Queue: 2 jobs
Job 1
Amino acid sequence: MLKFDRVKIQEENPEERKKSFIMEPMKGYSLDEATAEASRCIGCNICTQACPASLDIGAYINSTAVGDPGQTVRIVFENLPFPAIIGRVCTHNCEDICVMYDTGGPLAIRHLKRYAADQFNDYGKVLNIKKRGFINKKVAVVGAGPAGLSAAYYLALQGVRVTVFEALPVFGGFMRVGIPRYRLPFEVIEKEVGFIESMGVEIKLNTRIGVDIEFSKIMESYDAVFLGVGTHKPRMTGTPGSDAKNLMHATEFLRRISLGEKLPVGKNVVVIGGGFTANDAARSSLRLGATNISIMYRRREIDRPGYPSMNANEEMEESVDENVNYVWEVTPFEYVKEGDTIKQIKYWKNQMVQDTGGRAKPVPQKEKTFTMDVDFVVEATGQETDFSFLGDEYSRKLNLTPHGGIIVDQRGMTSIDGVFSGGDSTNMTHDLISAVRDGDTAVIGILDYLNVMDTVNEEYLPLLDRWKKFSPMVAKMAYADRVK
Ligand SMILES: Cc1cc2nc3c(=O)[nH]c(=O)nc-3n(C[C@H](O)[C@H](O)[C@H](O)COP(=O)(O)OP(=O)(O)OC[C@H]3O[C@@H](n4cnc5c(N)ncnc54)[C@H](O)[C@@H]3O)c2cc1C
Ligand code: SF4
């Protein structure tokens, strides 16, 4: 008999997993589960039209359904060199729009991709890429995050000599030093970035452009440059008492944990902010031994970043299962210190006030003050791009949006001739799949700029905007309609 219900993924016990940075919350499908789930797909490919990177989802689900995960990996690699990573942490807007939503649940597109990718330790054997010799072109990539590494991979397949410069001692950007290890194991990142290196991409770690090498030197030495520098400059709240030693921005907090530090957070941790980074900081605090963790957000649950989407719901469910406590509609206004240590947070309750037309605004109700005891405070209040690496001359030349994002044309080129950009520093969506899409776009732009399009091997060019009809925003709206 036909079975239409989505095959539930097995999860680790929250009480066990919250003690471990190694244990992934979700176990991954078995062969039988993957086959059963993939067999539900009707192949309409509506989902592909909402995927930022235009993956041929219907086709790769079909290859999993017929027991050919190698073909799934080959199809994913047409546009994305990170199937096991994206198979774990993609925001998966494609599932929000899946036509099977009301017929047993949307296809588990993300879990199916993970299943296929996890079957292979060495993608080289599956992909069987016939690498070209180097052509006489050199490209520098600044930043070894998903945007830079995607661009590097597809350029290298065309014989371009690519050097990636990375400030940190590890590659992966926020895949490695933002997303915690329990959601995205280091070995998975090493497998996929290792494959990119094996295709001839050189990655120079511990090399901060603007400090170790001047940006002007890069401009002189390469035929084109791709900036995938992300957003690594913290935005702090500036709440009185912020100079305490037990307060940290979430990106520093998560980076230091990822690089091996065991930060002493105590028992009571408060995370300020409402997005995915706040969840990751809260759940990492649990794994460092904290027992009482609150996320304070100034707006309502329905206003939190990323909502409405299945992904936002899943992230919150996982946090709630691990006993993270959410405190909605509050404004912290003082960190009360003893010496250089915050002991309490003082906060107001907010009231959401609807402005004419715009988004409801949180207005603090100041007549009553609340307090919460705390051992450690994490501010997950956003971050921006640090442009200091460019130096004065190139900073002046680089056009930015009013929000500080890099402006690029359709080819991904900035206002500086020969300098391309993508990822968090450039797009508004700030997720992995969009960073990869930007890398793909820039590959075509760079090859065109280098004037080598007539010699490219089309088989290895990323396929941009396959059957584009919907945007990820349409997928979100579809989901919002469904959960009303
Ligand atoms: C905590 C957290 C959790 C997240 N969770 C998810 C998730 O579950 N799903 C999802 O899709 N997205 C998630 N994201 C967002 C996602 O990680 C980013 O959208 C993505 O990594 C952006 O890619 P990027 O290549 O633009 O930049 P990044 O990944 O930020 O990489 C930029 C790299 O450039 C380097 N760099 C910067 N300046 C220089 C310089 N001057 N010289 C040399 N190197 C430099 C940086 O060190 C960094 O390694 C999360 C982000 C965070 C912070
Ligand atoms: S929208 Fe759903 S049913 Fe249609 S191809 Fe995509 S996963 Fe399959």
Job 2
Amino acid sequence: MKYLSLLLISAAFTFVACKKQNKHNPVCDGSTPTYNSTISSIISSNCVSCHSEYGSYAGLSATFSDGSFEKEVLTDQSMPRNGELSNAELNTIKCWVENGFPEN
Ligand code: HEC
């Protein structure tokens, strides 16, 4: 009986541990990042390993014209898959999105 409850407790912990971490709440800090100044380096270190087409502004632009960039990165925070952006990176991206994805 003792053994069974231990088993149940550890199963419960495993379940909690596997849930996706809390989402960040990105807030623009008022900075005005551009693709060339800041965003391209975040994208190349976190996205291009899986999405080689995002290695250029033109390649990435399809994802912001159809809204999928904002959805995946800021709203759902499901990208980068197998990773996580820092608060600072998300805040920077938030400003960039609010400012309309400036290239430079
Ligand atoms: C480990 C691999 C991996 C990384 C890293 C990754 N992605 Fe993805 N991404 C995927 C896969 C696989 C899909 C398609 C399946 C899905 O939607 O889950 C996808 C889908 C997407 C989509 C939806 C558009 C579409 O074509 O379906 C967007 C937008 C996106 N990723 C953006 C990004 C951005 C921006 C980053 C970096 C912040 C990133 N991804 C990092 C693997 C990755």
